[in-house]
Amino acid sequence: MVRILVTAVGSDGDINPMIEIARALLSRGHDVRFIANGSFAHKAEEVGLPFLPLGDSSLFQEVVSDPDLWHPRKGFSAVWRNINQSLPLSLELLEQNMEPCNTILVGTTLALACRVLQEKSANSVPLATVHLSPACLISRYDPPQGPVSIISPQTPQFLKDLYLSLVEVSMLENVCRDDVNRFRARFGLAPVKRIFARWLNSPDLVVLAFPEWYAQRQKDWPENLCYTGFPLFDRKQEQRLSDATRTFIDAGAAPVVFTAGSAMAHSRDYFSHALKCVRARNIRAIFVTRYPEVLPRHLPDNVLHASYEPFDHLFAEASVVSHHGGIGTSAQCLRAAVPQLVCPFAHDQFDNARRLEALGVAREIRVEKPKQWAGKLGELLDDPEVKVSCRKVKELMTVCPDPAARAAEIIEGLAKKLRK
To answer: Domain 3-229+401-418 sits in which CATH superfamily?
Structure first.
């Protein structure tokens, strides 16, 4: 039995798939401990995962309350302020729970303390870096899509390189490099650069928690990578739709579901535009948000507000799902074979929107262009080819029936390094 410390940094879309991977490791007989912000303790404990809090829930609420978190260019700076503040605690928590010569580390892209500990131990502690979306990997051949759509597969390589250098330096490196190197210097570790393109990827194993048909392997991605498919958070046996939502769905035509993300506390414009779109198309809708203060004051009878619903149940009942482009929500839509109206705000959401459109299952909208919403929603509702594409992608989702188990199997292979 190996001790495995799983660290997940982020919101529900980052936590949920990592819980699935941790559960799969636990089922294989390992001593698994799950590390995340205290807001997510209940999720881990509900499925029997020993939980170690990385800061309390007030810290998470402070982050999601920052309007810069969802700014297309300032978003990473807002995220980094929290990560940088938490680095000492993260490292301390990992070291306190390590079992000498019998510990494997597993961390999401931004679990940088795992990478520091690996180097601090002279690479004697194996680490699996888990990337949940393709935008977490920096490639000069297929640069992550940002808020300005200037790059396509046909773009000359020199322009791709220029675009990538601007994004990588101005939006990533300049934000975090000095802080990372100051923290590393405490332990006598040499400075690093190209943190996202190179350094944060474990030399032991890089797990891509999405399928290859969603993002083809690039020549400059890490050589030691393994695809798994999407480890979807699935609670069909344990949860059901609320009575109010079930009654609303049964009362008429399949609704359009609008959600701006579990941590999106600044979606007033999104839901305002959504209501106008609903009225223009004369459709039924469900608005899902934990922040009722962002909703229009008076919702008509054909619109229901739900603070939470299990997406694996809800999306199966929807005619279209409009969402922010988070990887977890996107993958749940793909499995439900439901068309997607994607309104990205920041982070990897623009890149996911591009990939979903390329699959033929989505249309991208922007919150600053609300006049386009009703027309693009109409395309999703009326074009039979969209529904055909949705069914084809759903079939692709069945190729790897249990991505979490696949990830656990790959990570478990790192135990061989412990026996050397």
So the answer is: Glycogen Phosphorylase B; (3.40.50.2000)
CA distance 122 to 417: 13
Q: How far is CA 195 from CA 85, 168, 177, 200, in A?
A: 18, 9, 7, 6
Place of tokens 């194993």: 205
Going by C-alpha positions, the residue among 40, 81, 61, 79 that lies closest to residue 265 is 61
Give, to the nearest 10 degrees, the angle between helix 174-185 and helix 112-120.
Answer: 30
For 208-244, write each residue's pLDDT tens digit: 999 999 999 999 999 999 999 999 987 655 678 999 9
Query: What does the DSSP assignment read for 219-280?
Result: TTS-TTEEE--------TTT----HHHHHHHHTSSPPEEEE--TT----HHHHHHHHHHHHH
Domains 3-229+401-418 and 243-397 share a fold: yes
CA distances from 341 to 56, 319, 344 (A): 34, 11, 10
Q: How many CA atoms lie within 13 A of 351 on its CB side?
A: 18
| Cα dist from 312 to 206, 301, 320, 342, 410, whole Å | 27, 25, 14, 18, 26
**Which of 285, 312, 290 minimizes the C-alpha distance to 301?**
285
Mark out the alpha helices in 97-156 (DSSP H runs).
Answer: 112-120
**In the CATH hierarchy, which fold is given to the domain comprising 243-397?**
Rossmann fold (3.40.50)
Contact 195, 176 (CB under 8 A): yes
Domain boundaries, the chain: 3-229+401-418, 243-397
Q: How far does CA 168 lie from the centroid of its chain?
A: 19
Can you give the pTM of this predicted structure? 0.93
Tens digits of residue pLDDT in 132-142: 999 999 898 98
CA–centroid distance for 269 within its chain: 22
SS3 362: strand
**Max Cα-Cα span within the chain:** 66
